[in-house]
Write a structure and sequence with these properties.
Involved in the TonB-dependent energy-dependent transport of various receptor-bound substrates. It is built from three helices and five strands. It is α/β, with parallel strands linked by helices.
Length: 135
């Protein structure tokens, strides 16, 4: 009978088996690939196709300006604030498709510009651009 102090079959394996880890990761990858398109919250809509068109109004816009003193001008012609709304109504009635630009000095008080904007709104004008200076 031979006895040995070390047994050859009782060695402890100190390696990590990576195969189950790779299998789990591949399953998770497949699950994410399948579910990712389903997480889209957008509604599918078939949009109509149209060709590009030119703007119908090729005329120059009417410029409404407010200077630093609060004076109102329509195309470089001085207009009293009380006469602004009737003047704009007559211009709007003669050409409803006309576009308007609003210029105002930086130092003008907000109340003056608000009164001009209210007159523009009451006159029925909807095509208004507020012009600012780019930095």
């Amino acid at each position: 009978m031979a006895f040995s102090s070390q047994s050859d079959g009782d060695d402890v394996l100190s390696e990590i088996n990576v195969t189950p880890l790779v299998d789990v990761m591949l399953v998770l990858l497949v699950v994410f690939i399948v579910t990712a398109p389903l997480l889209n919250n957008a509604i599918t809509v078939n949009l109509p196709k149209a060709s590009a068109t030119k703007l119908a109004d090729s005329s120059t816009p009417v410029t409404i300006s407010v200077n630093a003193e609060g004076n109102v001008y329509i195309d470089k012609q001085a207009v009293a604030l009380a006469a602004l709304e009737p003047e704009l109504k007559s211009r709007y009635n003669s050409n409803p498709d006309q576009t308007y630009h609003l210029n105002s000095d930086e130092s003008v008080k907000y109340g003056s510009v608000a009164k001009v904007m209210a007159a523009i709104e009451r006159s029925g004008i909807t095509k208004l651009a507020v012009i600012t200076q780019a930095n």
